[in-house]
Specification:
It is found in: Membrane. This is Outer membrane protein assembly factor BamA. It holds the Pfam family Omp85. By secondary structure, this protein is of the alpha+beta class. The chain is built from 15 helices and 29 strands. Among the domains are: about 120 residues, Roll (Ubiquitin-like (UB roll)); about 90 residues, Roll (Ubiquitin-like (UB roll)); about 110 residues, Ubiquitin-like (UB roll) (Roll), CATH 3.10.20.310. The chain is globular, with a radius of gyration of 35 Å.
Amino acid sequence: MKSQFPIHFRPFIALSSIAIISSCSNTKFLKDGQMLYTGAEVKIESDSLPKKQKKALKAELEENLTPKPNSSFLGLRPKLYAYNIAKEPKKEKGFNYWLKYKFGEKPVLLGDVDKEFNKDILVNYSENKGYFNAQATYDTVSKNKKAQVIYTVKPGNQYLISQVKFQEDSTLINQEIQNLKDKSLLKVGNPFDLGVIKAERERIDNGLKEKGFYYFHPDNIIVQADSTVAKNHKVELNVKLKEQTPYLATKQFSIDKVVVFPNYNIRDVKDGKYSVPMSEDSLSKYAYEDIYVIDPEHKFKPRIFDRALYFKPGDVYNRKDHNLTLSRLISLGVFKFVKNEFVVSDSLNHKFDAYYLLTPRQIQSLRLETLGRTNSANYGGGEVNLNWTHRNFFRGAEQFKAAVYGAFDVQLGGPKDANNIIRVGANTQLSIPRIVAPFRFNSSSAFVPRTNINLGYEYQSRTELYTLHNFNASFGYVWKENVRKEHDLKVIDITMVAPQTVTEKYRQQINGDPANGIPANPTLQRVVDKQLIFGPTYTYTYTNTTSPKTNTIYYRGMLDLAGNITGFLTGANAKKGDQKNIFGVPFSQYAKMEHDFRFYHKFNEKTNFASRIIAGIAYPYGNSEFVPYSRQFFVGGSNSIRAFRARTLGPGSYDPRTQNATFYFDQSGDIKLEMNAEYRANIYKFLNVAAFVDAGNIWLVNDDINEQGINTRPGGKFSKDFLSEVAVGAGVGLRLDFSILVLRLDLAMPLKVPYYEKGDRWVLDRVKFGDSSWRKDNLILNIAIGYPF
């Protein structure tokens, strides 16, 4: 009889069956004399240790025991059961092989446990923590072919540091060590701890590296512990250099020559083209300022290395400048490999040459990208991008990027009158690895500051409605203080929007057609108005999310000031009818800021909590009564409030359903408040699940009043009742995390809808899960790439 289930369902059926029946004893698969190892427990016997200290020591000791027992879930061992029931595969592939060796776990037996080894581990670890008289024993408890090992540890009293001495002598290296002792990690009164001693040796090594002792090593430091000279469980520590410390490790080195190979290739070295070190005669023709750049083909301008290198001849070596130089060379973006060598050139005077061996990346590259996408606004589409990159455009590590693209979005469902969107465009960027300005800009960051010049054009067609030409240009700077802090200042950011065609159908939506039940919507005029936006923008980003901390944050703040100086100088005042033009186009004047704050809490390796708050405001004044449509805020969609389709929410309590369906997805506002919270958990390798809650909305600064004095979006203005107009949605998500790609599916439903009647906005009492029309309108599936925040 053939299986009733398709092949692709069988793994899920098998796993479900395992989860149900794995409560059956795994011990029936054991051979005679075998016992399943269920783990170990450490018991601490001590009358002198506080309860909290006992608990901490117990946890640390148990963590060091090996092997670990088979993993369990709610008291069951499904992975072990899968291993036991799966047949031995004939080949290293197929479902049976996956079930036994990929999903399953081989049984951990009592015979696999080296109890004597573990006992020694417990004693040694205790002694390393200052329990010098620790003793340990073990016993085995077994029942029904299952065994547990109980280790009993008697740690005795923990020894405390009574004195820390740094042995003195007249050598230069000892003087530098003495200068470092004030910040010693070894403190009188603290417990003896071998881990702290190792950290202290690393600290001294780091300090000496900053003072020119390049060949020094932490192992050259010895910390002697004497517990015989003090009573009451005290220990004295004596920090000193080992007598066998190599000669070079005790000497302070300075830089003799700095030599750069910007076109280095290991094959050229084998062919005898390059050699390290090089003679004075060979170097002389490559001199530039006070460095040597070995570049016979003149592929790079020497001055880029003069800016990037922090070592100059005569400088005392220090690790900070060493690492800073390597980081800056890497951040130029033109070198694939960056290698550094120090070669002793004068052993008597303790000097060495610094060689930088740089292997360039491919200077030019051409890349074709295609992608498909969908969004919660019932659109699906694709995009094709052709990108060309030149990483050394003017021989100064300038990166020039040019791209052409075409994209389309087609209505997949929803409002029948929604229109397709076509976009075609091109953009270029020249990124110069320095600040181009009339003033001098010095940066000691590991990241090279950049001057960016951007030019772009896009043709946008919304079929049957309008076509637009969009031009943009910007000039500005990007620089990093460190790996956490980044600044992006666009001194000038210009956008010009010019309509090509506006159809009669679209005009009808703007002006209204009462005979056909179409209300006037003058806000749509702003989409096709000629727009000229120019001014500076500034963005600051702080993040420590790459650190291994339990709690991490991300912050991005943005300030956009458009037309402010021009508006002030011309005395423009749109509200009084005195609107000024440039080249026949009214320029926009507004101030906008936005703050994006995110907090992440890591419970363990598999579960974490992520949250986000976004707050922003855009205020028009002077030459503008309204903020340009392209610079307003929007909410809804896969990266926002997921229970509402993209751009369908707000402003305020305004009901967008009162508009013609064609423009249901065009809601914008001047004020934005959004909050998101998400619990994330990994359930199996690349498979992650999430539960989330989203809340927020947008509002207007001023009412949308048309020429007839009618408010076209009633309820949209920000007021003291704004909290009652905050939309709320919740849902669950499935994420397939393949490291290079994260496919996300989020299913959400609204909990609070701001455009319902004020006392009836919470919608749980409206839930009708059996009603297919309710599900269609209220259960929103978001398909996206990457995490929402």
